[in-house]
Specification:
427 residues, five-stranded antiparallel beta sheet, 54% helix
């Protein structure tokens, strides 16, 4: 739930509870004071009854008015306590049941004791209470609704800078030189937040550029000594004066140096991709490129006796040829290296995607980690950068790249970005 929605719900709930509570207290207070007024009127009626009995020493005849009824009942005891209460009585004048307020007490006439009941209708006063209650509560309710609407609009306007800051954070990309936008706001806290994020983004960009520059320079600097080491190792391996033990040691050194060279080349390629140094676009015949790379890997395929099944539709795509070739090379290399003898490789090409499927170890890879740099399982002998490079290439070329494991086949699917004019089928 969004903060604004949660705030409005809490405010509305609190306002509703407060309005109900205030309305109840107001209604009860108003009823109390009106009952007091009715009780005073009942006392005045009782005084008139007592004045009549005092002056004439007889009980007056029961009286019935439109909203007033006085009844007498002879009792054997004297009771002068006044009791007030609400009740429902039958009004003989109106011939219907009504809510009423009554006074019950006792009087003594010529030594005889009587109980006096004076009923007065509350219908008119209840209507007055309802009218007063509605006249006061209705404007309060309308005012509350208006305040809630104004509060909602004001909160939205006040929080608009925060939304813009959040949107900037979502679109922030280290690989792009687009600066973090400065948000203008009359709220000091939002200005401070925006300035703090701006400062952090500048520091992050600076550190990121330094790391990339260091990686690029280090990779370049390592290329020459690695090439010299490889050359010297080649010469020593071709020498006839080495013993068996020395030759095995040199072979291990040569393998380690070759692996280090591949790692260095991979890092250098990642730096170039990250810095967008490989950006030339051209029309590439994807099907022809796949046939060419299959021919290049044909010897490795035959050595492992792999069966290759291809379904290649003629597709021309506008992209960077070097990056696409690197993509195909890595996928083919992985399909061969991580396969088993007499295994299968299936390659399908359509205008929307390239799909590589291959047999291999009967266990799905961790699709959440395989694209992380330097991640590899214990069966892999690679550098752990191959799939990370593929993912980065796809991100740069706006391709989607995903891995699945279905029907005992490891499947890597690359979906091209949609192109209306650039993507065409070749005859």
């Amino acid at each position: 739930m969004k903060l604004l929605s949660r705030y409005n719900r809490i405010l509305m709930f609190a306002s509703a509870i407060g309005l109900i509570g205030i309305g109840f207290l107001f209604y009860r207070t108003l009823s109390f004071y009106l009952n007091k007024q009715i009780d005073n009127n009942l006392v005045e009626e009782l005084m008139e009854v007592k004045d009549f009995t005092h002056s004439r020493n007889i009980a007056p005849a029961p009286e019935q008015y439109l909203d007033l009824v006085i009844e007498y009942k002879r009792t054997g005891y004297s009771d002068t306590l006044k009791r007030f209460a609400d009740t429902v009585f039958y009004n003989p004048k109106k011939k219907l049941l009504e809510s009423a307020r009554y006074l019950r007490t006792g009087i003594t006439i010529d030594g005889s004791h009587y109980q006096v009941l004076i009923f007065t209708s509350k219908v008119e006063r209840e209507e007055q209470i309802k009218s007063i209650f509605l006249a006061i509560i209705s404007p309060v309710l309308l005012l509350l609704v208006a305040l809630l609407l104004i509060n909602r609009l004001m909160i939205r306007k006040l929080w608009q800078p925060f939304r813009l800051i959040l949107e900037n954070l979502k679109t922030f990309n280290l690989n792009q030189e687009k600066p973090f936008e400065v948000i203008k706001s009359p709220v000091e806290e939002f200005r401070e937040l925006n300035q703090a994020i701006l400062d952090i983004s500048l520091r992050i960009r600076s550190d990121f550029r330094e790391v990339k520059l260091f990686t690029e320079n280090a990779s370049h600097e390592m290329m020459t000594p690695l090439a010299v080491i490889n050359s010297k190792l080649d010469m020593m391996l071709q020498s006839d004066r080495l013993g068996k033990e020395e030759s095995e040691t040199l072979v291990d050194l040569y393998k380690a140096t070759s692996r280090l060279t591949k790692l260095n080349q991979s890092l250098l390629l990642l730096v170039k991709i990250d810095n967008n140094l490989i950006s030339e676009q051209e029309e590439v015949d994807v099907s022809a490129l796949l046939v060419e790379r299959l021919s290049y890997f044909q010897e490795l395929i035959q050595n492992r006796n792999l069966s290759v099944i291809t379904t290649l539709n003629p597709v021309i795509h506008k992209t960077n040829r070097y990056l696409l070739e690197t993509l195909v090379n890595n996928l083919l290399s992985n399909s061969i290296r991580h396969n088993y003898e007499n295994g299968n490789i299936e390659i399908s090409l359509t205008a929307e995607s390239i799909i590589f499927k291959n047999t291999g170890r009967p266990l799905a890879l961790d699709e959440h980690k395989i694209f992380d740099r330097f991640y590899k399982d214990h069966h892999s002998e690679g550098t752990g950068l191959g799939l990370a490079i593929l993912k980065q290439i796809c991100n740069r070329q706006h391709f989607s790249f995903k891995y699945t494991y279905t029907e005992n086949l490891h499947c890597f699917e690359i979906r091209f970005k949609l192109q209306s004019a650039d993507n065409a089928l070749a005859d």
